[in-house]
Amino acid sequence: xxxxxxxxxxxxxxxxxxxxxxxxxxxxxxxxxxxxxxxxxxxxxxxxxxxxxxxxxxxxxxxxxxxxxxxxxxxxxxxxxxxxxxxxxxxxxxxxxxxxxxxxxxxxxxxxxxxxxxxxxxxxxxxxxxxxxxxxxxxxxxxxxxxxxxxxxxxxxxxxxxxxxxxxxxxxxxxxxxxxxxxxxxxxxxxxxxxxxxxxxxxxxxxxxxxxxxxxxxxxxxxxxxxxxxxxxxxxxxxxxxxxxxxxxxxxxxxxxxxxxxxxxxxxxxxxxxxxxxxxxxxxxxxxxxxxxxxxxxxxxxxxxxxxxxxxxxxxxxxxxxxxxxxxxxxxxxxxxxxxxxxxxxxxxxxxxxxxxxxxxxxxxxxxxxxxxxxxxxxxxxxxxxxxxxxxxxxxxxxxxxxxxxxxxxxxxxxxxxxxxxxxxxxxxxxxxxxxxxxxxxxxxxxxxxxxxxxxxxxxxxxxxxxxxxxxxxxxxxxxxxxxxxxxxxxxxxxxxxxxxxxxxxxxxxxxxxxxxxxxxxxxx
Length: 525
What we know:
This protein is mostly beta strands. It has 8 helices and 30 strands. The chain has 6 domains: 2-90, CATH 2.40.50.140; 105-175, CATH 2.40.50.140; 187-262, CATH 2.40.50.140; 270-349, CATH 2.40.50.140; 353-436, CATH 2.40.50.140; 444-516, CATH 2.40.50.140.
């Protein structure tokens, strides 16, 4: 209020003329009471203004001699006091300013006070105005509460003094500002120009950047030289970024922007900087089912395939081994500049367990391990060093015809085996179980079973070409189908039955004993 005192003093000094109801004029505070102030408006006329018409700050600071602007409600009452209103003076002046702004398009200032149906309420210096939702901003405002309490400039769209109806627009102000900015910005838009802008919107396919009155599109493919899944990995709405103009279409005013083009393409000399065998360090930026991507440098990422993550024969999902942001070391396996591919390996930065195995073990050594898995062709035996060896089905027994390894082994069982061969280059190891014992076909079986011997055995399997029987000592023999005995009508041979036969063939090389029931002379001795 003190800032206006000099001007009000001048007006007060000039106010020595007749006044009438509805006049706005300056007055001097000549008395201060508990509920208001006495104001002298000249011509020995005084009026009273209640403190309710002053702000708390004005009430605290008002003093004798201050000049205030008042509205004359009526000329003297019965007691000779002029009825004055400071509030009506303020509002009348505001209405005059609003009418002027409505005519010449000038801006008015106000404070957004609260939400109402269809928009917001605005206080224009004591006059209430309506701000429709469509006139709030150029863009949709999601949170209207964030605007409450903010002072802004508006344009008056419609005014009706009699009904106290005022409609204002913030959008019109912004559009004018944007049009002015656009004119200034367009002058500097040309291919290759570096411009600063604000991230306005983020979509799956790119980013819209406000360059000052006009938007440009930064496509996802022009954000980074490296891998990118979504633009939100690089930007958030409101970010101020520097971009380069790639293309400007004057006819449509479309501006295509680039971000990665501000930096050299790291793939240009990737084969020189990262030859095969080079050690690199980088952060894990992406994890997939088939491996992890490592950022070697900005815009340059390499893939560590799942098979190159760990030496373990049992592959775990990459997410079980690494996390986003983790720094790792890797070795370059292959570089393909044309296809922009960089193949890396983490496991090859560590000694291969097969290299360790080749120095610790040799063929002929007896070792222990656990049955990791069973297949139709054998069993995989896990060793403490983290590698698996194959125990082939043919190396399970010297004498038994094993149809499946599960007949002799079970998963998790600890077994002693002998190393038959080691091939570190191909990561293979052959193991044997039967080799823990001497081959009985070399001496024992030929001495025990002779041509013409009559033997007894248990039928194991019935096939089209004969009957496999288990003889003494677990040795298997085959009664050929042509050598089976004629049985009484209605009788059949079943598995588990005890059968008598004569040895008609012994083949130590093929490890076979041929039997005949027809050539049997009598019960075996």
